[in-house]
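Ligand-bound model needed. thiamine diphosphate.
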Amino acid sequence: MHFDRKHFSDQELVSIYKKILLPRLIEEKMLVLLRQGKISKWFSGIGQEAIAVGCTYALQQDEWIMPLHRNLGVFTTRSMPLHKLFMQWQGNKDSYSKGRERSFHFGTKEFHICGMISHLGPQLAIADGVSLAYKLKAENKISLAFTGEGGTSEGDFHEALNVAAVWDLPVVFIIENNGYGLSTPTYEQYRCESLVDRAKGYGMEGVRIDGNNVLTVIDTVKGVRDYCIKNQKPYLIECMTFRMRGHEEASGTKYVPKELFEEWALKDPVINFENYLLQQNVLKEDEVNHIKEETKHCIERELQIAFAAESLIPNSDEELNDVYEKKSEISNLQSTITVVDNSQPETGNRKRETEKRFIDAIKEGLYQSMQQQGNLILMGQDIAEYGGAFKITEGFLNEFGKARVRNTPLCESAIVGCAMGLNLEGFKTVVEMQFADFVTMGFNQIINNLAKIHYRWNQNADVVIRMPTGAGVGAGPFHSQSNEAWFVHTPGLKIVYPSTPIDAKGLLIAAINDPNPVIYFEHKVLYRSISGTVPEEYYEIEIGKAKHVLQGEDISIITYGSGVHWATEYTQQHPDISIDILDLRTLLPLDYEAIGTSVARTGKVLILHEDTLIGGIGAEVSAWITEHCFKLLDAPVMRCASLDTPVPFNLELEKNFLAKTRLHEYVQRLINY
Ligand SMILES: Cc1ncc(C[n+]2csc(CCOP(=O)(O)OP(=O)(O)O)c2C)c(N)n1
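Prediction:
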């Protein structure tokens, strides 16, 4: 292996040697501990250390890195305290993830390392978001993300590279091409000659290098970093390397020809560099031995600290509390925000209100948030010049500029990931799904990254996803779905679903001010069909609080979204029935107190929603009522929901599908029970 020391001083070369040696010696120790059953699983990076160490060495300490499962060298080169790292692998309480995450699935803002999720691919778009933040702040920085060659087959790889190219982001993508994705060799993974050829297809520069030569890696990444900052462009680097152990220790290596191990053993990144330093007289044999002994002692010392740590005693309250970031009590903003409490039926007039359609109230909430929050970025398909599919952001571009009102390529996953990355560098984001149905393409980022990140490593995800939802316009199965229940089952998300203009504006502002990921549903049929008075000021409606719409004594209808209007209309048409109507407004967390109060008032409950029946919110509310309010009930809790079919296109079929068609039947059944 040929090393070119270029401008590196002897001191620097020794420092690099220590850095590449450390992960190797830690791993050798871990393999022993694994055999002793002291750690649970190990993904080895032996043979690939030059890449993680070299890349990290080439970056500034405060530039974000998105490492993967073989990148121990990132964590050690950032000089993370080893005992904390060891505690992490032991699942200790004092580790970065409090025992909630395994191996390298954790991050820390302190070290600018963003923790991976198991799913391969999503990390890349988070790097896009971070580099977009650097660009918007005009900081001379890059972010860097790793992928294996296997991970390049994921759609997320394509989306992230495309966005980086289209938005001219200073981000470096590193492919560690180690020949196998678990047992899959490269010829079953891709057909192009080399993966770096793909750079051209995305419209970016790329280079293929020897990933086992630490000086080549450092020199290349430093040069690429300068290029990315100067030209404000992304770059793809394919590092050729080899995995010297199994995919993980339990999986073996039977599928790898023996000759390959022999061939690559000769290219060992640590041994070759060590030999080079000896040949060059940068280090002497006894110095090398001394460094190794010292490093081993340090590892032992730090291990003892980790082993001595107290064992974890589960505390359910703490577990639950850590799912969400608390809204800061002392936020500067709080003092300027009015909280409108309209959870009880109207009693008097508020000041400075105007009549507004549902859609205009959403628009105003978004517009005022853009005015109030200089760090708020909007992203979505066609939201800039075109104003969005429903024209909610029409005119925003002129007022707030192209940097903050961002048209995106067609790539929901990358854009949600990008929002996460922006958030790591202090931005808030509202992502517009063109239709709620298309959220499936960004599902993984929402469910596995945004929702879980606070619980996993105490990093909030300040992102709102706007979801134009619902049926009633003859738009068929893929432009009409009610998909709120998919998200309600995911701890870490908040789900809001307003039904009136005043709530739509106030809940949107509250969602944007909330530091947690909020899925904000806005019913398309309500956009232009309903109006109401809306305060002109900038105000919040509290998330998690239902609204008591109408007082009644015979039955309760607990509902949300379009169901509120169906129930209200039904009540007007049937003045002989005294109906108590509760608008849930927030589906996660549910307002159990308000639900219980309504049950106590009538003893007969109908849960009404546009979503289909099985596994809908109604099932959850019904179960809760049965469990907690059983003695208050005079009848079984009933659910009126849409048919358990996809949403049909034909207007008559759609009408038949919708729960509203069966509302009268259910009310009668309940009344007559
Ligand atoms: C989306 C997804 N599918 C499948 C897996 C299971 N899996 C974990 S690692 C791996 C192989 C990855 O290969 P590569 O990207 O080349 O990285 P390497 O492990 O070789 O470093 C697979 C299939 C996963 N983690 N994520």
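The pocket of thiamine diphosphate is lined by residues 70, 118-120, 148-151, 154, 176, 178, 180-182, 243, 247 (CB under 6 Å).
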